[in-house]
Amino acid sequence: MKKTSYKNQAQFNLPKRPLFIVLSSPSGAGKDAILNRMKELDYPLKYITTVTTRPQRATERDDVDYHFVSRERFQEMISNNELLERANVYGSWYGVPKQPVEQALSRGQDVIVKVDIQGAATIKKILPQAILIFLMPPSMEELVVRLKQRHTEPLSDLALRIKTAEEEIKQLPLFDYVVVSQRDKVDLAVSDIKAIITTEKCRVTPKGITL
After folding, report:
1. Sheet of 83-89: strands edge to edge?
2. Could you tell me which of 68, 118, 72 has the C-alpha nearest to residue 97?
3. Are 24 and 114 in contact (CB under 8 A)?
4. For 84-101, what is each residue's pLDDT tens digit?
5. CB neighbour burial string for 7-16, b if at least 16 within 10 angstroms, e if fewer
6. 16, 104 in Cβ contact below 8 A?
7. What digits encode the pLDDT tens for the residues 140-158?
8. Inter-CA distances, 127 with 85, 144, 146, 161, Å
9. What single-letter DSSP state applies at residue 99?
10. How far is it, in rounded angstroms, from Cα 208 to Cα 168?
11. What is the pLDDT of residue 90?
12. What are the Cα distances from residue 92, in Å, to 55, 86, 134?
């Protein structure tokens, strides 16, 4: 009997399923540090830059850390249906631009966005196939230390951020995965996120977006 060889046979017609990954956490848990490290390592994802009306900080770069826009421009983007989701966080608006997400997914490219807990909940309703990752601080005590040390908000806002973080952590069941963000161990968190992506890619029935 002639042996079957798969070497030169046509590939299976498996659907393209790019992943839509949502990274969310309480303020100060380290989302930016982890995403910046993934970019440094050239991890192959489309990193979506969030739009915000928040004032730009001295260490931030426009169109890199965020797209900083006026409130008028943000409202215009809402009116033109340019945002996948939006949320008011501590008095400023944040939103995920729709066009770069759609373009990347249409190319079969995996996408990652950083959003607050409200945004993650909204995206899950719109795209239930999205992979939601919750970035967890080792403890509330550690989170308080980080918030104090970064000196980006007045002390008067600190109590509100701590209380909000406590409520946000209660939303953990909304997410698919949790990654602990430990101080000075950014690479460990990055490895955990890469492992999650690998796991999702190996699913028999993946949660990716079918194209």
Report:
1. 67-68, 51-52, 92-97, 83-89
2. 68
3. yes
4. 999 998 889 999 999 999
5. eeeeeeeeee
6. no
7. 889 888 888 876 666 677 8
8. 11, 33, 32, 28
9. H
10. 26
11. 85
12. 9, 11, 22
The pTM of this model reads 0.87
Which helix (H) or strand (E) covers residue 94, if one does? strand 92-97
Please tell me the CATH code under which domain 20-201 is placed: 3.40.50.300
Quick one: CA torsion of 199, 204, 207, 211, rounded to 10 degrees?
120
In the chain, what are the domain boundaries?
Answer: 20-201
Least-confidence region, from 62-66, 159-163, 179-183, 198-202: 159-163
CB 161 within 8 A of CB 146: no
Which tokens go with 181? 């963000």
Which spans in the chain are helix H? 31-40, 71-79, 98-106, 117-126, 140-150, 155-169, 186-201
- β-partners of residue 150 are none
Query: Residue 52: CB partners within 8 Å, gap ≥ 6?
Result: 66, 67, 68, 69, 92, 93, 94, 95
- Cβ–Cβ under 8 Å, residues 188 and 196: no
Q: Which two tokens stand for residue 72?
A: 């008028």
